[in-house]
Structure formats: structure tokens, C-alpha cells
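C-alpha cells for PucR family transcriptional regulator ligand-binding domain-containing protein. Go.
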Amino acid sequence: MKSYLMVKDILERKHFENIEVIAGKEGLGRLVKWVHVVEVINIRKLLNGSELILSTGVAWKDNHDIFLSLVQQLIDSDAAGLCIEIGTFTSTIPELVIDLANQAHFPIILFHHEVPFVEITQDIHTLLIHRQYQMISDLESYSQALNKKLLTIDNYIEILKFIHQYLQVQVILLFSNEEVQFLPEISSSNERKLLLKSIEKKDSTLYSIERNPVQLLGDNYAELIICSDERVLTEFDHLILDRTATALAQLLLRELYVEEKRRMEETEWLNGWIEGIHTEEEIREYLSYFNPKFKTKGAVVCLIKLESFEQYSSADITYFKLFVRSIFEQQGFSLFAIEKRNTLIFIFLNERGSSTWKKRFKQGMERVCNVKSQIGEQKKKIAIGKYVEDITAIHSSYQTSLETIRIQERIGNKAESHFYDDLHIYRIISQLNRHLDLHEIVLEYLEPIIAYDKKYNGKLMETLKIYLSCNGSKQETAKRLYIVRQTLYHRIQKLEKLLGPDFMNHEKRLTIEFMIYSYEYLVAARKATEVEREAY
């Protein structure tokens, strides 16, 4: 039994044997929600829509203008139709009324014999109430069947098929990322565009449309839409749609939960790997799950620290990780990714010769840095840890990548390489700074130079660094400093006075050069700390 009544259904009931539809035959599919007997001329504010009106015509009698006005009010109020008893007060229907009703597809039905309006209303109202009870029963049965289906299915397409088969309507799932799923599938691109345009307008006369949001965790994840070009969708259709949208949200939430749980378990395992918890057997078993034939020639950990990490959506991060994966797979690496705070941690497993890993890695990282994407063009720090031959030593590569990030944050642009292996002296300086009072040691050797430059705005520190890097060549030093030799001789004399005439002796010279790098590291670190405090 249908859960709704149309005008044409009522015309098959008792007391409608001797009737004539004189206008609006195309509107016989209008829904009927109630029946009213109306014998007044101002009806506009008394109707809610979809009422079938019964009348003897006593309100207008032979006044065609009043009759025309009443029909217009009924049309504007979205009434289902008008049934008139001919003979008692009304004998003819004006052509203007018939034309108006035909234009609006508004049915006008004539009783050619006297009929008991009270029996008609009682019969139809009883039928409507029975249909309401039937609708509630059908809705409950549908919900139970849908809940049972949720226990066995793992794809939302099955739910779309279920509502389509039940209501026999076009079903559309419109995701928030503008992905669209049609069921049944529409092959014609023009038809798809027409349907989507009708849905977007929301007031299309081509389709009857009902829509319901699919909400996950407080956000509109998608929109479930049903539409039909054959019948008007009813309140029952809307209730079925609402139940289906709820079930769909439950299924999608379950899928997201399972995926998130899998990711959390994988992240937890990978965290254990970089922390050095897992045995070689456990690691190889984990890798064989992804590729039974996988054979690694070595591994390295890379950190990519993003500025304003929170401004990126999960979709941006996922796209970036997929992009990195596609690039480095071409370079002979497999990789696993972890997110920690504002940092992406990549474990790269080398599948080719170890002698070429660094060259291939540089080529891949160059492409990553040059990619034009939401993340690719943003500022980021990249740190590559120590390359290890043994996959159980990944934690060592991870720790050295963290050390590389720390050094980069201290010395900024002076870190000319992303690789831990290329930082050389700064690795030693960083370790000393953590365990000793490096500032005091630097002052022991360089304090006279620092004080002189500060007092006289001199350039002795710069001169000393260039002079040492040129291995004491006065000609090369003067050339790199863009000064004449006489000025250089004067500065060297000042350096001998402040540092001692033996400052170029082998051991003392090496120590002073090391202290210069340490001083620059401390200055850069102090500036970085000040910037952080200002930002805070």
C-alpha cells in the first residue's frame, strides 16, 4: 500500500462514480493530505497545502469574478483540487476558470448529482489516517531492515542501492569535496549536468527533490539526495531519506574509525621502530606484510618540519605525503610516514645500491622542494639523518635527524646541507654546547677580539676567519676582504697583539678556528631564541 494519496486515487472511491474532470487533468497526481468543505470566499489563510476542497458553490453562486478569485487563492495555497456539486447553487463553470485551472494543472471535478460531503470526508480521512499508521509501520520495517544490513555491508553503495530499490527514485550522494555518486548510474553527461543543476537551484519544475545532510562529528560530510521526474516526493519519502542518511553516517563513521584505528596502530608501531624497540624479526615481518619480496639495502630517516602546520587540512597533508611517495619510489625508495606535532617523519628504505643512495635522494628532495602545491611552496626545514645499513638501527638515523633539525634552528642559513653527514664541525659544536659551558671556552680564546670589535666597530673577527681559511695567505685574504695589503698588515698586527704572536701555530690555530665556528653557532642560537621569545 502506498503511504500517500493522490487526487486520482480518491476519484476511485465511493461517491465519485458520477464525476467529470473538466480542468487540470494533468494535476491528478497532486498529493492529498486532507479534505475540507469550503463555502467561503476568503480561503487563502485557512489552508496549509495539499487539501482537496469540496463545495456546493453557495459562496459565489453565479458571480464569476468571485469564483475566479477563489480558484486563484486555492492555486496559490497549493490545494490539491476543487470538487463542485453542480445543480444546487452552481450550474456552469466559466471558461476563464477552466483556462486558469488548466494553466496551473489544478484539477476541477464536478459532481453531477447530489452527494453526502460528510460521508466523503469521513471515508477519505479514515483512509488517510490508516495510511499514516501504515506509513509508520513501513518506516519501522525499513529502519529494521536497514539496521540489519549495516551489520553485513562494508560499502556505502549498498545503502544507496537499498533506498533506490525501496523508493524507486534516483539517488545521489554529494560529498563535501564535490565528489558525486549516482545510483542508478547516469551514463549521459548532459543528463547528469541537468540533474545537478536542478538540485542546485532547489526550485526546479523538472524534478521533485528531497535532500538530507549526512553529518559526521558535527560537520556536513555529504548530502544524500533523492529525486523523481515521475511523481511528487512525499513526507514518507523524506522520512525514509532521513533514516537512510543516519544509517549512512553510521557506516561512514565506522569506516573512518577503522581507518583511524589502523593508522594509529601503524603510527604506534612506526614510533616503536624509530625509538629502537622492535627486533629485526619483528621489523622484517612488518615489512613482508607490505611486500613479501622486499629487500632493503639500507635506510635513512628524513624530517620535514612545516611552518604553521595547523593551517593545512588533512587532505593537504595526505596529498603531500602521496606526492613524496610517488617521487621517491621512482628513485628506488620505499617509505613510511608518521606525523608528530608540526613535523612529518619519513622512513626511507633503499632498494638499490648503497653507493648511489645520496645522489638519488638529493634528486628526489629537489623535486619535493620545487613542487607547486599547498605545502610544497611553503617554508620548511628538511633534515636527513645518518644513513644506516641495518634496519634495526633506524633509531640512530632518527636521532641524528633530530640533531640536524636542532643545528639548523641554531645556525639558520649557515647549514648549507640538509644531511647530518655534511654538518661536520657543527655536530661536534652542538654536542659540546649541550655538555659544556661552550660560551666560557669561546671567551677564553676570543674575548679580546670580541671586545675590540664591539668597542671600535672593527672587523677583526671577520679578518681572522678569512685569514685562517686562506691558510695565512695575505694576498688572498686582502682580495677576499676587498682591502689593500697595508690595511691587512695593520689588522694582523692587532690580532698578534690581542691573541699572541703564536696564534698561527698549528694547534693554537686549529683551536681558534674551532672557537670561531663555535662563536657563530652561539650567536645564531641566541638570535633564534630571541625570535622565539618575541613570537611567543
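The mean pLDDT is 85.
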